[in-house]
Amino acid sequence: MSIDPAQEGARMSFDGRMSYGDYLGLDRLLTAQHPLSDAHDEMLFIIQHQTSELWMKLALLEMGAARERIAEGDLRPAFKMLTRVARIMEQLNSAWDVLRTMTPSEYSTFRPALAESSGFQSHQYRMIEFVAGNRNMAMIAPHAHRPDLADALRAEAARPSLYDEVLGRLRAAGFDVAARPALDAPHAPDAAARAAWAEVYRDPGRYWELYELAEKLVDFEDYFRRWRFNHVTTVERIIGFKRGSGGTSGVTYLRRMLDVVLFPDLWELRTAL
Ligand code: HEM
Q1: Secondary structure of residue 237 in the 3-state scheme
Q2: pLDDT of residue 12
Q3: Helix (H) or strand (E) holding 42
Q4: What is the mean pLDDT for each group of 10 consecutive residues in the chain (273 residues)?
Q5: Separation of CA 231 and ligand 1 centre (Å)
Q6: Predicted local distance difference test score (pLDDT) of residue 1
């Protein structure tokens, strides 16, 4: 006997009512994939990027809200949001397993269709870096043809980063930590901040909230580094040391990016402890 969900009380008619697909805008979402070749694997490539961008959208929302809570000194909701961001990164990390099923032979069947487009031009990825505090103004140039996106990145670089607000919490707790001199530059290690963090880590019971906050940031960076590592390994597996579609040296460039540190004070303090 097959089950009739109507008997279970399921609504079966949506004339004039909002359905699942209406609410989620599925018509638009599911017709936004436009392969430019006949290659079987191009759809995988497109969906992998699109889903990554959707998760990045959520990560940015959570990071922005966490930053606001931190600025207000309301840390507990921020902890939850930052945990969610780390889980999103974990989700993105697992996603590489799907892309890894694509071989160099398969990628080369549609590679010409991409022309010069590349994840290097992902404005959301840059925004995540900018919010976290890795602000390299040279990365805005690929968005010059889209003033709205370039302006959004510039506006972000002019406001305190997530970590700047965290430094504000150290100050509020009585630590003598100066604001960073230039907001539109990557975080540089700071001796006073490192000394403050060392004190927090030597006595977690006394500074539990700051201690937890620091660990949330380290967690985020930990997952972020794994994303970069998984990306570069997948890229090497698929294109070897060929140049990237975005024009960089490819794997050599991405390996250099592995050394970029988001929160240097928090990593350096570990050696100092
Ligand atoms: C076949 C799969 C992929 C290949 C061969 C590949 C290749 C590359 C290469 C060579 C670069 C360096 C820039 C360039 O010259 O193009 C790059 C950058 C980048 N890719 Fe991918 N990629 C792949 C998949 C993905 C996916 C699924 C994402 C998810 C959104 C992604 C996001 C990025 C980002 C954000 C950058 C910029 C990294 C940075 O500047 O630090 N890539 N990719």
Answers
A1: helix
A2: 94
A3: helix 42-72
A4: 92 95 98 98 98 98 98 97 96 94 97 96 98 96 98 97 97 95 91 96 98 97 96 97 96 97 96 91
A5: 7
A6: 78
Residue nearest to atom 4 of ligand 1 (CA): 235
Question: For ligand 1, is residue 142 a contact (CB within 6 Å)?
Answer: no
Ligand 1 near 104 CB (within 6 A): no
Measured in angstroms, how far is the CA atom of residue 29 from the centroid of ligand 1? 22
Largest CA distance in the chain: 73
C-beta of 238 in contact with ligand 1 (< 6 A): yes
Domain ranges of the chain: 38-272
Architecture of domain 38-272: Up-down Bundle (1.20)
Q: Is 74 exposed, middle or buried (0-12, 13-18, 19+ CB in 10 A)?
A: exposed
Task: Say whether 84 counts as a known binding-site residue.
Answer: no
pTM for the structure as a whole: 0.96
Rounded to 10 degrees, the C-alpha dihedral 225/59/68/158 comes to 70
Backbone angles phi, psi at 53, to 5 degrees: -65, -35
Q: Ligand 1 pocket test: pick from 231, 233, 238 the residue with the most ligand atoms within 8 Å of its Cβ.
A: 231
Written as six digits, the tokens of 1 are 């006997």
Residue-level pLDDT at 110: 97
CA distance 98 to 241: 21
**CA gap 217, 169 in Å, rounded:** 14
Is 223 annotated among the ligand-binding residues?
Answer: no
Residue 111: the pLDDT is 96
Q: Which residue, judged by its Cα, is nearest atom 21 of ligand 1? A: 119
DSSP string for 56-106: HHHHHHHHHHHHHHHHHT-HHHHHHHHHHHHHHHHHHHHHHHHHTT--HHH
